[in-house]
Amino acid sequence: MRRYEVMVILDPNTEERTVQPSLDQFLTVVKDGGGSVEKVDVWGRRRLSYDIAKKSEGIYAIIDLTAEPATVKELDRQLNLQESVLRTKVMRPEAH
Amino acid sequence: MAKPAPRKPKKKVCLFCQEKLSYVDYKDTALLRKFISDRGKIRARRVTGNCTQHQRDVATAIKNAREMALLPYTSTAR
User: Fold this and answer.
1) Band of the pLDDT at B1, cuts 50, 70, 90?
2) B23/A49 CB distance under 8 A
3) Which residues of A touch B (CB under 8 A)?
4) Beta bridge partners of A44
């Protein structure tokens, strides 16, 4: 098991209220894989430095979790399949 | 005519060694902005005064932040 930090940029057109439930839904794969989610930090709407998919804003969320490497890979794959996810980044803060 | 004394540039100390920060966080844009020019370019080590290791860490953090649109790749000031 390893600690990971996942950053997600969501479509700005999704409602602020629905962000948390949809993130929880994405994260079920972590719980099924025997991992645990420590913290979900929603930064909220933020201006992008450059346009992504013709959008100039995005909803940022940071997720701290502990899981097996394969589980995180699967989570990242599923996130990238979502239409409402503009971009993701998986980091291991302890690797530095 | 005596030559003017050579300028002694003040030795800069690496900010991260001073503060004893081991990990440069790519999410901390306020900090990273100190290390990019107004055109969005990464400042050279001779300008920032960072040590070799921390300059590397800063550069990686800036590149990560750029990927997530937290910092610009280019900004056309002028």
Assistant:
1) low
2) no
3) 7, 9, 48-50, 52, 58, 62, 87, 89, 91, 93, 96
4) A60
Chain B contact probe: residue of A47, A48, A49 with most B CBs at under 10 A = A49
pLDDT in tens, A6-44: 999 999 888 878 888 888 888 888 888 888 888 889 888
Residue B66 pLDDT > 90? yes
Q: What is the pTM of this model?
A: 0.82
Quick one: pLDDT at residue A15?
A: 81
Looking up tokens 């794959």, which residue turns up?
A: A77
What DSSP state is assigned to residue B26? T
- Chain A partners of B73 at a C-beta cutoff of 8 Å? 49-50
Q: Report d(CA A33, CA A76) in Å as an integer.
A: 13
Reading phi first (left if > 0) and then psi (alpha if -120 to 50, else beta), residue B44 is in beta
